[in-house]
Amino acid sequence: MAGKIKIKLVRSPISTPDKHKRVVKGLGLRKLNQVVERPDSPVFRGMVKKVPHLVEVVK
Asked: Which ranges in 1-59 belong to alpha helices (H)?
């Protein structure tokens, strides 16, 4: 797993549990449709797996 992944916030974390909000914040996402680029590592892949209903990986 080398390179980068782009992660996009597609749903608001407002009515989600606090744990999900902290994961989204840890990914560096603040606004809807915001895209951030992160290293393609198991750490970030695991964070995305915790909130698949809020984010998506874009190419």
From this structure: 18-27, 42-50
What pTM does this model have? 0.91
Domains of the chain: 4-58 (3.30.1390.20)
Token match 């964070």: residue?
47
Cβ atoms of residues 35 and 58 within 8 Å: yes
Q: What is the identity of the amino acid at 35?
A: V
**What pLDDT, on the 0 to 100 scale, is given for residue 54?**
98
Measured between alpha carbons, how far is 59 from 4 in angstroms, rounded to an integer? Answer: 10
End-to-end CA distance of the chain: 15
State yes or no: pLDDT of 2 exceeds 90.
no
Q: Which residues contact 10 (CB under 8 A, 6 or more apart)?
A: 32, 33, 54, 55, 56
